[in-house]
Amino acid sequence: MEIRREAYLNQLIERRDNGMIKVITGIRRCGKSYLLLTIFKRYLLESGVLADHIIEIALDGIENEELRDPKECFRYIKDAMRDGGQYYLLLDEVQFMPRFEEVLNSLLRMSNIDVYVTGSNSKFLSSDIVTEFRGRGDEIRIHPLSFAEFYSVWDGDFDDAWDEYMLYGGLPQIVNFQNERQKADYLKNIFANVYLKDVIERNRIQNDAEINILVDVLASAIGAPTNPSKIANTFASERQMSYTNKTISQHIDFLADAFLIEKAQRYDIKGRKYIGANLKYYFTDLGLRNARLNFRQQEPTHIMENIVYNELCIRGYHVDVGIVEAFGRDSSGKRLRKQLEVDFVVNQASQRYYIQVAYDLTSEEKQAQEFNSLRHIPDSFKKIVIVNGVRKPWRNDEGFVIMGMKYFLLNADSLEF
Q1: Distance between the two ends of the chain, CA-based, in angstroms?
Q2: What are phi and psi of 104, to 5 degrees?
C-alpha cells in the first residue's frame, strides 16, 4: 500500500535543478526517506534520468558506515560522476556525517549535480540552513500524514477514519497495522526508544526524569496557554521538584528542534504585535501524544484544535494564536476590559484568516462564545468557524463561514470558500 505524497513530490519537482541544496526535514518516521529514495527517485527515472546518474546514499545504514566520513563521502560522489551529464545526489539522514555542511557546499561548486538531503534534527538542518549553506539551502518540511492522505488509503467510512486518526495519528507505519494493540505498542515504543531517547542523547540531558515529566505536562495541556514559569511552579508545588524556568525553556526548545512539538505564539490582533507570555504547544502527531498519556485524556475539542493546527502548517500557513481586546460592563455597570481568544490567526503572504475550532455549535451559548471574539476583530479578513462533523460550508448573517471538519480536511482550498 503506497500513500502518494503528491504535495511534497511537487515541491521537490518545482525545486529541481534550481542550484540550491534541497533539505527535507521533519520528525523521524514521517516518510522522508521513502519520499526521497522511492517516490522522487521513481519520478527522476520516469522523467528520463539514467539510473547511473542518480547517486543514492543512506547514511543510517551499516553498509554505508565508511561514507559517514566526509572526505570518503565526497570522494565516492566525485568518483560516481563519470561524465559531464547532470547527476542527482539523494543523501539520506545526513546528520550521521560530521562536517556535512562542508561536503554539501563543496558539491555546490559543481555545475552538474543537483543535491537532495534528508535529516531529522532542525538544529542541523533548519535553523542553520542560511548560514551554513550561504543562503543556498532550500527547506522542504515533511509532516506525518494529513487526514486526507490517511483517508486516501482507509478502507471504511469517514467517521471511522476520523476516530482512528484522532486516536492513533498519522505516522505512515500506523496504516499497516491490523489491530489496536499493535498500533498502541508501536507508538509507545518509538516515543520512548526513538524520539525521547534521541533528544536526551543528542542534547546530553543528565536528568532525564525532568524532561519525561515535562513531555507529560505538555501532552496534557495541548491547546492551553502556558509558559516555563507556570510549569516550574507546577513542578515545585505538586512534585516538590526544582526544575528552573531556564531549563524548562531549553528542554522545550529541544523537543521543538526534534519536531515533536510545535510552538504557537500569541498575537495581539488590535495592537498588531506579539505577546511573549503564554504560548500554546501542539504535538506534531496526535498518536504520539495519545500514546504518551496511555490513550487517556481524549478531549475532542483540544484534539480537534491540534489537528486543525497541524493541517494549517501542512498547507504552508504561518499560524499564531490570536488575542483581541474587548470591553463590557459588569452587573453594576462598571466598565470592564477583557481579552478574547481567537484560536488561530493564519497568514500566507497577503492572505489572512481568523479561525475558531468548535466541537459543538448547537446551543446559542456556544455560538456566542465562538462568535464573540470574531466580532471584535477590527478588519475584514475572512472569519471561519470549523465544527465537528460533515457539514458543508455556509455563511451566517454576520458573514462568518461555518464548515464541518470533513470539508476542511478533505478540500485543500477549503479556506477559500
Answers
A1: 33
A2: -70, -40
Query: Is the pLDDT confidence value at 128 over 70?
Result: no
Q: Radius of gyration over alpha carbons of the chain, in Å?
A: 23
Q: Does position 337 have pLDDT exceeding 60, yes or no?
A: yes
Euclidean distance between CA atoms 388 and 35, whole angstroms: 32
Q: How many CA atoms lie within 13 A of 57 on its CB side?
A: 27
Q: Which CATH superfamily is domain 6-141 in?
A: P-loop containing nucleotide triphosphate hydrolases (3.40.50.300)
- Set of cell numbers at residue 375: 466580532
3-state class (DSSP) for residue 269: coil
pTM score, two decimals?
0.93
- Which helix (H) or strand (E) segment holds residue 368: the answer is helix 364-375
Q: In the 8-state DSSP scheme, what is residue 87?
A: E
- Structural domain boundaries of the chain? 6-141, 146-417
Could you give the residue ranges of the DSSP H alpha helices within 22-179?
32-34, 41-46, 70-80, 100-108, 122-125, 129-132, 147-152, 158-168
**DSSP assignments along 173-240, one per residue:** GGGG--SHHHHHHHHHHHIIIIIIHHHHHHTT-S-HHHHHHHHHHHHHTTTS-B-HHHHHHHHHHHS-
User: Which cell goes with 162?
Assistant: 476520523
Answer yes or no: are the C-beta atoms of 323 and 342 closer than 8 Å.
yes
- pLDDT tens string 14-34: 999 999 999 998 998 999 999
Q: In 3D, which of 175, 168, 170, 171 has the Cα closest to residue 153?
A: 175
Per the structure block, which three cell numbers stand in for 250? 531549553
- The alpha carbon torsion through 105, 107, 113, 116 (nearest 10 deg) reads -50
pLDDT tens column, 38-57: 999 999 999 999 999 999 99
Task: Kindly report the backbone phi and psi dihedral angles of residue 121, in degrees, each rounded to the nearest multiple of 5, phi listed first.
Answer: -130, 125
* Banded model confidence at residue 126, pLDDT cuts 50, 70, 90: very low
Handedness of CA 184, 238, 283, 357 (dihedral sign): positive
Can you give the pLDDT at residue 260? Answer: 94
Kindly report the average pLDDT of the chain as a whole number. Answer: 91
CA atoms of 88 and 401, how far apart (whole Å):
46
Other beta carbons within 10 Å of 221: 17
Identify whether the C-beta of residue 26 lies closer than 8 Å to the C-beta of residue 32. yes
